[in-house]
Write a structure and sequence with these properties.
It comes from Bacillus safensis. The protein has helices at 11-44, 69-77, and strands at 2-3, 6-7. By secondary structure, the protein is mainly alpha-helical. The protein has a two-stranded antiparallel ribbon with strand order 1-2. β1 and β2 (6-7) form a beta hairpin.
Length: 78
């Protein structure tokens, strides 16, 4: 099973992994389509996603830490 520390897969194992990858990709596409359809339907029924952006000044995210960039550059050059 192991060759130079690497796991060797049989042909059947490789096929199964490939099939699982294809199925996962298909499921991801279906999931994204459901979200897209749901958003379209919500907008048709009056949902206005742009209203979620109006109060961004009240919650801009976490506070930024002021760092001396010139000091970082100087230390990196050492």
């Amino acid at each position: 099973m192991f060759h130079r520390g690497e796991l060797e897969l049989s042909e059947a194992d490789e096929m199964v992994i490939e099939i699982v990858g294809v199925v996962e990709e298909y499921q991801r596409k279906i999931h994204n389509l459901k979200i897209k359809r749901g958003m379209k339907r919500a907008v048709e029924r009056g949902y206005q996603p742009e209203l979620n952006l109006r109060q961004q000044d009240h919650a801009p995210g976490r506070e930024r830490i002021e760092v001396p960039i010139s000091e970082i550059v100087r230390l990196k050059k050492k």
